[in-house]
Amino acid sequence: MIPFPPGGPTDITIRLLAQKLSERWSQPLVPEYRPGANTIIGTEAVVKSAADGHTLLFTVDSTVTTNPSLYAKLSYDPMRDLAPVTLVAWTPLAIVVKADTGPKNLAELIQFARANPGKVNFSAGSITSRLTGELFKRQLGLDVVLIPYAGARAVEGLLSGDINFLIAAASTVLPFIKSGRFRALAATGGQPIRSMPGVPTVAEAARLPDFDSAVWIGLFAPARTPTEIVAQLHRDIVQVIALPEVRERLESIGVEPETKSPAEFSAFIRKETAFWSQLIRQSGFRVE
Fold it and tell me: Is the pLDDT of residue 288 over 80?
């Protein structure tokens, strides 16, 4: 189950893994799309499915880490109703500007924002990228305005000059960087982006040592799925992700594969949820 529409690097990642798992299992693993309500509709379908390993959820971080804080009437509790199988990959985020008119580096962008409080705007298409923008402006004390374009329209906003900078997945903006239309100023995660050599992290460029935010993709099963099935799913996905052709394909589109054990993944989700829920409470962030 995929709780968002087809298309884009995350979908490519999931389809590639589904293909390889189908080959390994000698049976088809068919992606079913149930988009809507910020991944809630598709997630609810998995939560209500039989816990037999035949219905799985491939989704992004916000499904389990931020939706519980953003939706008061959420019908499921991610940690109660889903069984984490493994982290699959990271989709790193980058701060980008127009190459011809934008700042040359992150320091220039910060300086410009401080000189023009309330007049600098940015966009971000996903929940995590928008929260990354909130974290960025709060930690630096900047008065910048979020323009909440949906999905790919955020890129259009930067292309048209309607916004000053964009926070988006590296996989989304990489083609525009390669064509010379965008310039990457910084990676928002804790590590540089492999597909953007020479681009510093926000932690380095803005001297914010703890700044670390990126989108991730994970695999989940319904709660009460037998531990032996979860363990087998984990082993199979780890082996698939280790295949050179899989890693090469993912890295070519700006996606960085990484796995965790079910226990590690559960602990990681709890830590992420605590971090983002605190920021949401403190900032008053709401879904537009």
Answer: no
6 pLDDT more than 90:
no
The pLDDT, as a whole number, for residue 211 is 96
- What residue ranges of the chain are covered by domains with CATH 3.40.190.10? 93-205
Q: Which of 102, 132, 97, 282 is nearest to 203 (CA)?
A: 132
Give the architecture (CATH level 2) of 93-205: 3-Layer(aba) Sandwich (3.40)
Architecture of domain 9-90+214-283: 3-Layer(aba) Sandwich (3.40)
